[in-house]
Amino acid sequence: MRQSKLFTKTRKEAPRDEISKNASLLIRAGFIHKEMAGVYSYLPLGWRVIQKLKTVIEEEMAKLGSQEILMSTLQNKEIWERTNRWDDEEVDVWFKSTFKNGSEVGFGWSHEEPIGEMMKSHISSYQNLPIQVHQFQNKLRNEVRAKSGIIRCREFIMKDMYCFALTAEDNLEFYNKTTEAYLEVFRRVGLGDITYVTSASGGVFTDKFSHEFQTICEAGEDTIYITDESKKKAVNEEMADKKSEGKKAVEVGNIFNFGTKKSEELGLYVTDGDGEKKPVFLSSYGIGVTRLMGTVVEVLSDDNGIVWPRKIAPFQVHLLSLSEKTRNLADAVYENLVSNDIEVLYDDRDLRAGEKFADADLMGIPTRVVIGEKAIASKTLEVKDRASGETRELTIEHLIKELMG
Amino acid sequence: MRQSKLFTKTRKEAPRDEISKNASLLIRAGFIHKEMAGVYSYLPLGWRVIQKLKTVIEEEMAKLGSQEILMSTLQNKEIWERTNRWDDEEVDVWFKSTFKNGSEVGFGWSHEEPIGEMMKSHISSYQNLPIQVHQFQNKLRNEVRAKSGIIRCREFIMKDMYCFALTAEDNLEFYNKTTEAYLEVFRRVGLGDITYVTSASGGVFTDKFSHEFQTICEAGEDTIYITDESKKKAVNEEMADKKSEGKKAVEVGNIFNFGTKKSEELGLYVTDGDGEKKPVFLSSYGIGVTRLMGTVVEVLSDDNGIVWPRKIAPFQVHLLSLSEKTRNLADAVYENLVSNDIEVLYDDRDLRAGEKFADADLMGIPTRVVIGEKAIASKTLEVKDRASGETRELTIEHLIKELMG
Asked: Using CB atoms, which residue from B76, B122, B138 is nearest to A138?
């Protein structure tokens, strides 16, 4: 894409009321727009990152055999009353409104209840199980405080998955497989080294066991205690022994096991092989997609701006043409890269080199290719790695080979 | 995909409270789930149709040079007050709620105001214009009545696009280009012959001119009067002369021109070539994605069920294995089709042939391939076209060639 066509502009300062590092950088670089405290919109660059994150997650969900759906945001009061989670005393993050006829409606902060209810139309026999479904859905939560940028929002995109199983063993088997799939997601988006599986209590979601995936991050609201570095295991505060050293962390994913409790409350039963009625085992699995984006920005950025891992970068190459004289060569390099299906943001704007360098650093695209006047004679490109700062002179053929490799 | 793994089941009857044909068929075929009146969730088959529709629309938006974003559902009261559209007396479809601090928040029923406000951070000079942005976004509207299935919902997916231009001429040029792009969308999804560009008044959106795209459909809530069949032009009731014959139609898309009024209210100005401050011309463009899906079902279904146009079908081929003896051959055909990147739903369930035929008709996948016992000897496949009912005997090679052609 030609940067002259990209409508977003970078800015030197974030809005005064934005105190989080992730949102400040993302706003300055033109990836997101702040609507209100805890509410952000996603601009073209930010939306591209979200799409990349969704692709990584979707690939891992497909390997698990999960089927994609989309549940509604508007939710039925009656269903949540059956599990005693409608009352604001029980769940304190509801947004609620009323229909024209005066009856109340809720806005989805989670989807166990509506998905369990929906499954009653499709599950009747043990032969239907196990089933896994997931969605990328916009959650709305009426949080008291929202000061962590896109790490804790009042509106955010979550990938939530649900497993319906006949037995505790089947449920546990999927629970374990998903733990591995989630770790693979965090590895692929560049957070593998600093993300831990953490045993935790279930909070509002469950009275049974649960796990979190916690990424070490100064801006995190949680504290974890690493118990096994090689196996990436940790525990939360309640479960820590006194000698361990706590680290701040962000909960990037979680797993809850509801056992059969929720199915009994909702009336989700199947007939087993002996003709007996059995409540279905339910577990739920979440990755905060926008939160994950914010966490990547928090932990991988440097003094000059964002540093995107290649897998989720909005573009692979940021191509900079430094003057009017280099435009023809830069145009040719751009066309060459694009014709090889390499995603390029081409800074063809009429701006000083220094401004282009500063914008490129701020925006964090992994490979920067600079076309200065000496490139016209040398036939080589100045290629800089955003993460390491390493600069090399490469031919266009070499660069393409490396990027496609 | 193997149908034995698909969690949704077809059903003989729709819920008793569902009076619309589109939702009845989609629920019976397992494409959608009814949450409440006017609120539906999208199950794997339905979600695949939505993805196909989004792909068609996105391709046409990309040709227009529009950039994709995602705006928030939670909306700022103050922005809407500036254009006098917060008050329920002015806009009667708001869902509203309150934050914990007692201040009000709205849920997005449209996005002109927030997008105009956001643009103030990115537009300052005439050189930044024109800009087009679009999103696929979940709109929430507190409708009094919702009896048309997914054609009029309280929650629905819309592709909304916005054009920001320096002059009335630039604005009109994009307006005209988009009209063509929209007609191309409707052609590609199978509604070209019965969709008309209709001149209409602007309603709540604008006091200037506007157009609608209306698809002839008995279940439609509007009436249009065709004025030029060959150019696919029509007018609405207000503008019709008395001799024309009215036809029921569904509004599948619309275009509004706000002129500079909204920019003046929001404070969206640019500096022109002479250094003068000018308000930006704004127009907005919508296609109801889920409504479009409902309209396709309404107008293209027959007595046996849904008939999907190939471009938006959840799968291209519905492969039916009729008995245990044909399973090996059917497995081989399935693998062959899938290895050629053809999307196949493979009915490998242990059910009677009649049930499989009925389900295939109901679900509406364009090409049905039946593997009966005679196929084992004949080496040919019974291939039936869902729309025409035409049946042919084809070799697998012939079938693949046709589907890939």
From this structure: B138
Mutate to test the interface with A, among B122, B159, B160, B351 (most CBs of A within 10 A): B122
The answer to whether residues A7 and B122 touch, using CB atoms and an 8 Å cutoff, is yes
Q: What is the ipTM of this complex?
A: 0.96
What pLDDT score does B200 carry?
Answer: 74
Among A376, A372, A367, A371, CA closest to A402: A367
Count CB-CB contacts under 10 A for residue B278: 17
Contact check, Cβ <8 Å, B11/A155: no
Going through A60-177 in order, the beta strands assigned E by DSSP cover 67-68, 74-75, 95-98, 104-107, 131-140, 155-165
To probe the interface with A, which of B26, B72, B104, B126 has the most A CB atoms within 10 Å?
B72
- The shortest CB-CB distance from A76 to any of B36, B74, B119 is to B36
pLDDT of residue B379: 87
Q: Do A7 and B68 touch (CB under 8 A)?
A: no
In sequence order, what are the residues at sequence separation of 6 or more whose Cβ sits closer than 8 angstroms to the Cβ of residue B214? B195, B196, B198, B220, B222, B224, B234, B249, B250, B251, B252
Architecture of the domain defined by A315-404: 3-Layer(aba) Sandwich (3.40)
Please tell me the predicted confidence (pLDDT) of residue B305: 98
What is the CB-side half-sphere exposure of residue A190 using CA atoms within 13 A? 21
Contact check, Cβ <8 Å, A70/B76: no
Q: Do A33 and B121 touch (CB under 8 A)?
A: yes
A121: chain B residues, CB-CB within 8 Å: 9, 11, 33
Per-10-residue mean pLDDT, chain A, length 405: 97 91 98 97 98 98 97 98 96 97 97 97 95 98 94 97 96 93 97 93 54 96 93 86 87 93 95 95 97 98 97 98 96 98 97 97 98 91 97 96 92
Read off the pTM: 0.96
Six-digit token pair at A146? 């929202």
**Which of A203, A206, A309 shows the shortest CA–CA distance to A251?**
A203
pLDDT tens digits, B207-256: 456 899 999 999 999 999 999 999 999 988 878 877 779 999 999 999 98
Cα–Cα distance for residue pair A151/A141, rounded to 1 Å: 13
B93 in contact with A, Cβ within 8 Å: no
Given this chain, do its domains A21-300 and A315-404 carry the same CATH topology?
no
Strands (E), B114-236: 131-140, 155-165, 195-200, 210-216, 222-228, 233-236
Closest residue in A to B92 (Cα–Cα): A100
Give residues with Cβ within 8 angstroms of A41, minimum separation 6: A32, A33, A35, B69, B70, B71, B72, B114, B118
What mean pLDDT is reported for chain B? 95
Which residues of A are less than 8 Å from B118 in CB distance? 33, 35, 41, 43
Q: Which of A187, A175, A140 is nearest to A292 (CA)?
A: A187
Contact A42 B11 (CB under 8 A): no
Q: Which fold has domain A21-300?
A: BirA Bifunctional Protein; domain 2 (3.30.930)
Chain A residues in contact with B43 (beta carbon < 8 A): 69, 118
Q: CB-CB: which of A73, A76, A122 is closest to B138?
A: A73
What's the whole-number mean pLDDT along residues B39-56? 98
Lowest mean pLDDT among A237-241, B57-61, B264-268, B342-346: A237-241
CA separation for the pair A118, A165 (Å, rounded): 15
- Any idea where the domains of chain B sit in the sequence? 21-300, 315-404
- Pick from B138, B101, B118, B144: nearest CA to A43: B118
Name, in order, each residue with C-beta under 8 angstroms of A14's C-beta and a sequence gap of 6 or more: A23, A24, A25, A27, A28
Q: Report the C-alpha gap between A179 and B150 in whole angstroms.
A: 37
A-proximal residues of B, 32-91, CB under 8 Å: 33, 35-36, 39-44, 47, 50, 65, 67-76
